[in-house]
Amino acid sequence: LLLVVLGWVGLLPTSQAQATELPLLPRPVQATTTGQVFTLSRHTALRVGPGLSAGPATRFRQYVRQVSGMVLELKPTKRRTDVLVLQLDSTAVPQSKGYTLTIDQRRVTVTGHDEAGVFYGLQTLSQLVPPGKANRVSLPGCTITDYPRFPYRGMHLDVSRHMFPVDTIKKWLDVLAFYKINTFHWHLTDDQGWRIEIKKYPHLQTVAAYRDETLIGHKRDLPHRFDGQRYGGYYSQEEVRELVRYAAQRHITIIPEIEMPGHASAALAAYPELGCTGGPYHTATFWGVFDDVYCAGNEATFTFLTDVLDEVAALFPGQYLHIGGDECPKTRWRACPKCQRRIQEEHLRDERELQSYFMRRIGRHLATLNKRLLGWDEILEGGLPPAATVMSWTGEQGGIEAARLGHDVVMTPEKQVYFDYFQTLYPTDSLAAGGYTPLQQLYRYEPVPTELTPAQARHVRGVQANVWTEYMPTPGKLEYMVFPRLLALAEIAWSPGGGRNYPAFLQRVRTHNAVLHAQGVAPSRTYDWLTD
Ligand code: TNX
């Protein structure tokens, strides 16, 4: 018996090693290698089953061209060898967005539950194509079964504090899809700039999109310096539509965020009548929490915001609109006669309930637009709007509370998943916001709190990481902060819970350093600075 047990234990590491040999991120549900090899070359043909569009194969061809220079012909064929087969089969693959990928000497077969499944199978296949110039590449024989753990796998980007070009956002979407992230939360408005064109309110483009001075915060020795230049810009509605389309081709939904009632300095600078004091106001030049917010007693505020949301809803086909709700000081509302009158007329107890009134009113408007309300966890204060989904950022408690109330939740607690926080404690590291979320700690994060019952836990729709760009004036600094931490997020969001092995993960991360560079992304390598 002892020999049998030892023999079995002896087998374990080999079969596990075989599974983790594949440099896949996120880790698939199941993978075994066979030792066979398929040779992918420009002559490899394509067989697409009924009901599938050419989209997933097109993206695969682009990827291979980008990282190896090889232009796949992928000619339609009926032949059975040297072929990439893409097909749908919801019986063979019962999980929504799931796929199987098999590679043998003769062919590569991706079978998806749905088109998204085929797309994800091809992302996995892409990760098996080694970067570097080549006329043919060897793909490892394997059988992979895979499907997502969470339906919501999100990455956020703040473009208010610093703005990034449309091409950077496209590259961003490519890489998110490569790691099977399916939601891009686009933080479009804040105190430091309004970044989406709203046709009905032109001062948003001429005033709110700009601030007077450029904050330079990317050098450790220059924490808060201004260069005296005007800084800003905005995405036109045409650019937004183009990005929404680009994302959809990659099975990514973009959720726009329009902040209210706080973080509104830029909008108030453009339309001072929307504040309690009437201004004048200025687009903020440095980050923080500001006392001037939208006046909750003024009907003009609701007219403005519902007009804005009408235009925004028409641009984004996704079910959610994010309306912020975080960090709204009540200083002005306390001193404002109109806000106090509103509190009396609506029989509210205090300013917190006034914020809840504000969000409910906006929520009713969203319902008429057929949109669901998403907000930061402060929307719990003073009562949640009906059917609101809560993004739990101040910690896990907001998410726990919302799930217990039967509301959907996205987990995004700052201590675990904020990519604007430092990844090392070295004084030589590039300047970041105050927190500390190193890769190793992040990788341990478990999004479903153990306090929840199984029924409550089902309200945890997924997980998201946030990146606030106060100290990221360039795409390069953004990449340094987000990669490779995004790879850990992807695994937390997609791969089955448990069974995480940091050294094995780190090995895959190292492989992906070159994979990311081949896609024009320069990740940080701060994991090499840490000795433990
Ligand atoms: C809090 S996280 C904010 C952001 C800041 C961030 C700085 C959240 C919902 N609000 O406005 O950029 O802290 O880390």
UniProtKB/TrEMBL annotation:
Which reaction(s) does its UniProt entry say it catalyses? Hydrolysis of terminal non-reducing N-acetyl-D-hexosamine residues in N-acetyl-beta-D-hexosaminides
- Glycoside hydrolase family 20 catalytic domain: residues covered: 150-496
In the Enzyme Commission scheme, what number(s) does this protein have? Answer: 3.2.1.52
**Per the database record, which ranges form the Beta-hexosaminidase bacterial type N-terminal domain?**
23-147
The kind of enzyme this is, by top-level EC class, is: hydrolase
The entry's keywords: Glycosidase, Hydrolase
Q: What is the protein name for this chain?
A: beta-N-acetylhexosaminidase
Species source reads: Hymenobacter profundi
Q: What is the lineage of its organism?
A: Bacteria, Pseudomonadati, Bacteroidota, Cytophagia, Cytophagales
Q: Intact protein stretch covered?
A: 12 to 543 of 769
